[in-house]
Amino acid sequence: MTWESPSARVQELIRQVAHLVLDPAPEWLAELDAAVLGANPTIAADPELAAAVSRSNRANLLFWATANIRDPGAPVAPNTGPEPMAIARELVRRGYDAYALDAYRVGQGVAWRRLMEIAFESTTEPTELHELLDVCSRSIGAFVDATLAAIAAQIDSEREELTHGTHAERRETIALLLDGAPITRQRAEARLGYRLTGSHTAAVVWTDDPTGDMTRLDRAVEAIGAGVGGARPLSVLASAATRWVWVPSTRLDVAGLAAAIDAVPDVRVAVGSTGAGLDGFRRSHLDALTTQRMLARLHSPRRVAVFADIELVALITADADRATAFIQHTLGSFEHAGDELQESVRVFVHEQCNASRAAARLYTHRNTLLRRLTRADELLPRPLAAHTVNVAVALDVLRWRGRAR
Fold first, then answer.
1. Which of 46, 77, 102, 295 could join 300 in a cystine, given CB atoms 3.0 to 4.6 angstroms apart?
2. Looking at the 3D structure of the chain, how many domains does it have?
3. pLDDT confidence of residue 325
């Protein structure tokens, strides 16, 4: 746009107008907010978003007015301050598109009508008034255009940050749900094609070898669905080598899943807890991530892990150095005993120190088990009976680390 500086007299008039805009009457602000929010009932119905729009309206008025007090009639840069940028973030968090910004055009009309009233009160000289209105009209229009373009660009940036460019709508919606953003359940369900009521079990499916045919991840997702009676899973492409999965079920056939995963090369599955509703949807996913991270932290060879089985181990191993010290202090020389001896002690403790049940579970004679327990006591820093819980936890860590199976 060609931009010529106004005359000195009109520059002074613009400065006077800007000073009045800088301190608007409460009824003017109320009219502006009512017009903008009235143009988009969806925004108006959301108190947090409506308040953000109101703050942005005021920030834009002050920004334009301040710029014209400083340099009357010069082009005004877009307002990229925190208030309009917050609008971009809040729209994306709710799953809305840039169309919601069209309401700002209504606000532009309200502001222009008020400014014309001020202009007519500032001068009655026709030439001055014409130039004043012309410059202000072009200035406001260009400023609003540039600011809306900046907000739209920020919306794209916020969305790209959420989606990373993959499976855009699903990934974005999942991110909003996990973040606790105020997107409605009905809107989320429509975008995901998945009901968020009832119970959910989440899983993370991934491969440590991101080369080759990634359809093996999809086969693993299908196995999870088969493990809940053939229910259709919700699957989201978290990255090229990772899928986030949810199934609508209270129970997953873990043994069947493990058998199915054995037939899918280089794929691993971390299963979360089971929970109800949106809170359960989120919690199960976080538990699945905790399970995945524990497997990675321990360099575990296990290909299928369930949060219920590793919750305590994950807690103990969150600090790797302290976990190592705990194992050494608890097990002493027993840390380096053979797998058979360690497994015998672990099963004995899990069977509430009942030798007969433990022997049956191990498919061995009771006397053989008792001899192994005696040998364990010789290697442990303290007798097993004195700290059975600590020994069991330490052995579970070693088991997930691949030491005992």
1. 295
2. 3
3. 92
